Amino acid sequence: MEGFLFWFCGILMVLGGVMTIAQRSAVVSAVWLVFAFVCAAGIFALLSAPFVAVMQVLVYAGAIMVLFLFVIMMLQGPVLEGEAKLMALPLWPAVAIPPMAVIVMVVGYLRSNGLTGLGDAAAPGFGSPVFVAKLMLGRYLLAFELISIVLLVAIIGALAIGKDERTLPWK
Amino acid sequence: MEITLTHYLVLAMALFLTGMVGFIVRRNAIVMLMCVELMLCAVNIVFVAFSRVTGDGGGHVFVLMNFAVAASEAAIGLAILVEIFRRRRTVNVDDLKALME
Hints:
By secondary structure, chain A is an all-alpha fold. Helix content of chain A is 68%, strand content 0%.
């Protein structure tokens, strides 16, 4: 069962990546990238990292890809027509397969007893939110604080790059 | 067949190579940024796989750090792209060669 789940999620994930780079339109590429990220979340779940799997779907497939789609929407027009020499492939598998992948993933995860080929180093509760939180706010507190500075710098940088001087309120 | 650490590493390598090839062959800057996200995702798989084998949760913490880095990279990269598009009306990297000339 675990072997089947690995091959199922893994092959679909690489397929999603290949389709991302093989598509002519940036919008279709983005949808296939969401597909690849959902399958990567399945791989994380297999590796007994449920919290990381949930965050993968929430942050990557959710927030970051919405940002991409939003920018594609803003830059409408000639941008959507990408490289002319690339082939046009149908979009519907990218929409239809991820829900199936999630269902197979969840059913398989509930029916399997975890992976055996990776040893038994993981204690009970490994990868749960409490487990990750204890590490993040304990041993890795400094890294956690530093990453907040990275995010702050990114916010300021995005504002500084994207501002339009004529419409600033103090001008 | 038993799924071992090697399987996960080969899978991550396949995903990383996919992203790398895409970054090289595509000319649309938005898709190039997506390929960087693919490569970061492959790195996350390696982190989590080694975390599972060693039983140490540090990999999970650094995957979450990687999420923050990926979000920052996407935000800044897309802001730069919007600004480039506003000035040059293109995001095709073949047309952006002001520094080359």
